[in-house]
Structures are given as structure tokens and as C-alpha cells.
Amino acid sequence: MTKEKLSPLFDTEELEEELKSLVLYNDEVNTFDFVIETLIDVCEHDPLQAEQCTLIVHFKGKCGVKSGTRDELKPAYTEMLNRQLTVAIK
What we know:
The protein is of the alpha+beta class. The chain has a single domain, classed as CATH 3.30.1390.10. Helix content is 51%, strand content 19%. The chain contains 4 helices and 3 strands.
């Protein structure tokens, strides 16, 4: 009897690519209003969500503000860097 080799349903690299997060870090330079406005403009947050993320960043030091593949997050990452915010894709 021959055993059939099963292939995984998802490619591991593809699955890892889907699990990226755009992380915003606290700084002592930008105002709450500026960060909230940026989250609304760049990450398409509603005002309440943007305010909550800003508070989390202020008190916890960082917050994941958007999820997606690296390619999907790259434009938001670049724009937030252009606006002098501290962000990373993790």
C-alpha cells in the first residue's frame, strides 16, 4: 500500500505575508490631533477608532493601526513616514 503525501492548503510564506501589521509608535513631537487626522486620512480609520489608537499609542507606546500584506501596507507606511510618524511593518 502506498501512502499519499498530502500538501498543505496554504503556502507558509503566503500565510506569513498576510499576518503583517503596521505599528505606530509613540513620540513626543506630534500632536494628538495630527496623529488622529493622519490615521483617518492614511489608514481610513473612523474618528473614534483613530482617537482610540492614538490613546493606546500614548499610554502603551505602540499600537497596530492597520493589517494586511507587506505590499498592501507599504503605501500607508511610506505616507506615515513622510508625515514624520514613527512606524514599522511587523
